[in-house]
Write a structure and sequence with these properties.
CATH class of the largest domain in chain A: Alpha Beta
Shape of chain A: globular
Strand content of chain A: 25-35%
Largest interface: A-B, 60 and 60 residues
CATH topology of the largest domain in chain A: Nucleoside Triphosphate Pyrophosphohydrolase
Oligomer: homodimer
Helix content of chain A: 10-25%
Number of strands of chain A: 24
Number of helices of chain A: 11
Distance between the termini of chain A: 44 Å
Number of domains of chain A: 2
CATH superfamily of the largest domain in chain A: EvaA sugar 2,3-dehydratase subunit
Radius of gyration of chain A: 23 Å
CATH architecture of the largest domain in chain A: Alpha-Beta Complex
C-alpha cells in the first residue's frame, strides 16, 4: 500500500536549510558604492516626471458622487471608492464616523532578486507617484493593483510581472498578504512577495539593482524608500543568517534578537494567547454608510474635511505623468493634517534586543487588531487633554539624542496619500513594565509572525524595516 | 542606557522547552480502563436529559421574522440570526444564495488540564445538546457562547470558566480562534483553548477526567466526541514529544510526521505561498440579503428548504432540558439533508506520513479559503453529473478495508445542527500527483498552521483529530 504507482515517482522531500537567511545576510553585509544608484536617480529624474495639481472633488473627470450609495466612485465601477464608515466598539462605549477607501482587490508588491557576483541583489524601481512631495521614490520591482496588471488603466504592461505570476521562473523567499493602514483602508491587503530567479534579467530604464546592505543604508534618507518597499523589507526572513560579532554593541543585540534560539521574555504560545485574548475583547462593529451621513465631516471647498480640522482631508487631484503607465488622470487622495509618529522602544534583555509592541484595533483591519509600533500617534494642531496622550509618547519625544537609533520622515503611499508622511523613530531605553496591551518581543518572534497575514500593521512593518536596517549582516 | 530602573527588575526570559509536547505524549500513551467513564455516562444519562421537538419556524417563542431586515432574529437582538447570503465568485462565473447563521461573537471552547498521578488529564463534560441524536456527547470543559457566559440566558454560571478568564490561575497550552463551518456560519469563530492548572479541581456532576490516550480511544465511538472537542483536540501541540518506535508501522510514520525536523515534500514558505496565491485568486463577494430574496429557497411547512431539496433545511425546535443552563427554550436549527463526508488521504513518503489537504473557499470564512480535508462532500439524494464529483471521491468510496485507518460518523455541533453528522474517514494510499488546489503536508506543518487562525477549516480540524487519535504517544 505504501508503494506508489510505478508511473508516478514520489518526489524528493524539500531540502531544509537556512539558504535564504544566509544569502540575505551576505547581501545585507555587502554595501558597494551608491554612486551608480545616484547617477540612475539623476537620469531618471529627467524623464520620469509627475505633475499633480489639486482639483475640487466634484470636478474629477471619470469620478462622481453616487447618489444611490453615497460613495465617491469611478464611472467604470473599478479602481477604488471613498465611502463612509460608521464604527462602534463592541462595548458600545466608543463610536465614530469617518471616510475610508474601499479597494476590494489584492495588489502585488514584489521584489525580484538575483545573484550578481555571488551576492543577492534586488531590482528596485524609481517611481514618481502623484502624492510624493519630492518626486522619485524607491519602490519594489512591481507595485501594481489588480487594475494595473489586468490592464484597465489602458496603460502599458507591468514590467517583470511574469516572475511573480509564473512559479516556474522563480523561487519564493517570502509571499504573504499584509494589511494596509486600517484607519484609511477597508480590509485592504497587498501581496508582499520576494522572489529569486536564475534567469538573466536586464534592469530597464528607471530600475536599479541594489544589495540589501545598500537598501538598509538608504533607509535613513528622508522620503526615499516608499511605503511598499518598507512593507516588503519587513517580510524578509533574515533569521539565523548572521553571526553576532561578540562585542556588546547595539548591532550585536540586534543580531541575537534575529536568531530563533535566542532567549525571549515571552514564549510564542503566550504571545499568541495574548493576541487571541485582545482580539476577542476588541471586536468592533463597522458598517459602510453614505458619506453625507458622517455628521463630523463636511464637504466644503471641493474636499471632505473633519469639522474640527482633525485627522485628514479627502482631496481631488489631476495628475500628468511622463514615464508612467498613463499620461493623465484624475483621482481622490487622502491628505493628512499632520505628520504621524511611528516609534519603537527597544531594550536589551540579557544581550538580546526586545521591541515593545502594542496591540491596536483599527476599523478597516480584516481581523480586529494587529501589532502596532510602541507609539502610533497623529498629533493635532489643537491642544489635547493629557488623557488622550498615548503611553510612552513623552518618553519618545523627550529621548536623549544618544538613545535615538533611527529618526527619519518617510512617505505614505504616494498613489493614495498626498504629501503625507510619518516620522519613524527607534529609541533605546531600559526595560519598562508592560501595560496590558503591550509586550516586549524579539525580532525573531516578529519575523515568525510576519510570515502570516494580519499580525503586524502597516506602521509596525514600516518602522520595523527601519530598525532592521541597523543590522549589518555578515556572512555565516 | 541598557540598565533598567532599579525599582523594576528585568524579568527572566521564558524557558524554551518541549514540556507541553512531552507531557501530552505521556498523556496520550496512558490509557487506563474506561469503566469509570462508562459508569459516569450511565449516571449522567439519568439526570441530564434534553427533549427536543420540531416546531414551525413561525411559532418559535422569542424569535420572529424581521420585516425590515428579512432575517430571523431573537427579540432580544442577541444569540444569533438566520440571514440570507448572496455569493458571487470574483470571476463572476458562479453565484448562489443560501441561508446562513450570523452570530457575531467569539465563544470559548476550553479544555482544563491537570496532572493527576503525574499524567495530564482533561476535564470533559457530558453534555446533552438539543440537536444530538443520541443524547449525551463528550464536550470540552467549557463550551460557551458569549451570551452564555455573560448571563443573558438567565442560566446558571458556567462552571470552570474562571480558569479560562484569569491568567493567574493557569498556564496556556493552546489558545487560538478557529472558524466554524464556512458554508453555515458567517465569519463565526470560537476561541479554542487548552489550559493547565496546579490548583485543586473537583470534577462536578457530569464532568470526568480523561487522559489524552482515553480521548483518542473514544474517538472511534460513533457520535460520542462532539464537534467542539474534535476542534480543540486538533489544536493540541503534540509536536516532538514522542519517539518513533523504530518499526515501519503506520503509528511510526505518524510519529515521524509529527516531529518538526522530519523531511517534508514542501517547505513551509512554499506552502504559505501556495495559500497566499489561492486566496488572492479565490476572493468572493458575499453580502447579506433578506431571506425572501433567496430565489432557490422557500418557506414552506414551517421551515426554510431548498426548492430542489438539496443542502439543508432551517427548522425550528422547542427544547426542554434538565441539568442544563435553562429549563426550556425555542430556537432555529440547521438540519442537513444527508451525512457529509470528511475524508483524508494519507501516504508515507520516506517513512513520514503526509496528508493530502485541499484549499477550499467558503463564503462565510473570514479569510477567503482554508485548508479542508482531501474530500469534503455532501452527497445528494439525486443523481449528480460526474463533473460535480470532487477529486478523489471515488478513491475514498472504493478503498479496500485494509487501507481504511479510521471510519466513524461523528455529529455536527448539537447546539445549532439537528441530527446532522459527518462520516470521518482516513484512507492510506500510495503517493498521488497533486492537483493545483491540493498539497501533501506533514502533521508537523499542520500543527504549525493550527497555532494561527484561518488555516484549517472545521472539517479539516475534525478529521485531523481523528487521524491524530491513531497516535499512541509514549514517553520521551
Amino acid at each position: 500500500m505504501s508503494t506508489p504507482p510505478a508511473a508516478t515517482p514520489v518526489p524528493v522531500p524539500a531540502a531544509r536549510s537556512h539558504t535564504s537567511a544566509s544569502r540575505l545576510a551576505r547581501s545585507a553585509g555587502t554595501v558597494p558604492s551608491l554612486a551608480e544608484f545616484e547617477r540612475t536617480v539623476r537620469d531618471t529624474r529627467e524623464h520620469v516626471v509627475t505633475n499633480t495639481e489639486m482639483v475640487p472633488l466634484d470636478r474629477l473627470h471619470g469620478w462622481h458622487y453616487d447618489e444611490g450609495t453615497g460613495f465617491i466612485a469611478h464611472e467604470s465601477g473599478r479602481f477604488f471608492s471613498v465611502e463612509g464608515l460608521q464604527v462602534e466598539t463592541r462595548s458600545g462605549l466608543t463610536a465614530w464616523g469617518q471616510p475610508i477607501i474601499n479597494q476590494p482587490e489584492t495588489g502585488i508588491l514584489g521584489f525580484l532578486a538575483k545573484e550578481i557576483d555571488g551576492v543577492l541583489h534586488f531590482l528596485m524601481q524609481l517611481k514618481a507617484e502623484p502624492g510624493n512631495r519630492n518626486g522619485l521614490q524607491l519602490s519594489p520591482t512591481v507595485q501594481a493593483t489588480k487594475s494595473n496588471y489586468t490592464g484597465i488603466h489602458g496603460g502599458l504592461d507591468v514590467p517583470y510581472l511574469e516572475f511573480f505570476q509564473d512559479p516556474a521562473r522563480r523561487r519564493v523567499i517570502a509571499d504573504v498578504r499584509q494589511s494596509e493602514q486600517g484607519s484609511r483602508f477597508l480590509r485592504k491587503r497587498n501581496r508582499n512577495m520576494v522572489v529569486d530567479t536564475r534567469e538573466p534579467v536586464e534592469a530597464r530604464d528607471g530600475f536599479v539593482w541594489l544589495t540589501l546592505g545598500q537598501l538598509h543604508r538608504l533607509m535613513s534618507t528622508e522620503d526615499l524608500m516608499n511605503m511598499s518597499t518598507r512593507s516588503v523589507l519587513a517580510c524578509l526572513p533574515l533569521g539565523d543568517g548572521a553571526l553576532a560579532t561578540g562585542d556588546e554593541g547595539f548591532a550585536t543585540a540586534l543580531v541575537r534578537s534575529l536568531a530563533s534560539d535566542g532567549p525571549e521574555l515571552h514564549s510564542l504560545v503566550d504571545v499568541l494567547s495574548w493576541i487571541t485574548e485582545a482580539r476577542t475583547r476588541s471586536e468592533m462593529h463597522a458598517r459602510t454608510v453614505p458619506l453625507d451621513a458622517l455628521t463630523d465631516w463636511e464637504f466644503t471647498g471641493g474636499r471632505i474635511t473633519h469639522r474640527a480640522g482633525r485627522h485628514f482631508d479627502v482631496v481631488g487631484v489631476r495628475v500628468e505623468a511622463v514615464g508612467r503607465e498613463v499620461g493623465q488622470w484624475w483621482q481622490p487622495m487622502i491628505r493628512a493634517q499632520s505628520t504621524e509618529l511611528a516609534a519603537l522602544l527597544v531594550t536589551r534583555v540579557r544581550g538580546v534586543l526586545h521591541v515593545l509592541m502594542q496591540l491596536r484595533a483599527e476599523p478597516g483591519l480584516t481581523d480586529t487588531a494587529e501589532l502596532a509600533p510602541t507609539v502610533q500617534y497623529t498629533p493635532d494642531h489643537y491642544a489635547q487633554p493629557p488623557e488622550e496622550r498615548p503611553p510612552f509618547l513623552d518618553l519618545v519625544q523627550n529621548a536623549r539624542a544618544a538613545d535615538i537609533r533611527f529618526d527619519t520622515v518617510l512617505s505614505d503611499e504616494g498613489g493614495r496619500f498626498y504629501h503625507t508622511g510619518s516620522r519613524h523613530v527607534v529609541v533605546e531605553t531600559g526595560w519598562l513594565p508592560e501595560p496590558p496591551e503591550f509586550r516586549w518581543l524579539t525580532l525573531a518572534q516578529l519575523e515568525q509572525l510576519t510570515q502570516h497575514s494580519h499580525y503586524l500593521n502597516m506602521q509596525a512593518r514600516s518602522v520595523l524595516a527601519c530598525l532592521r536596517s541597523l543590522f549589518s549582516g555578515g556572512d555565516r
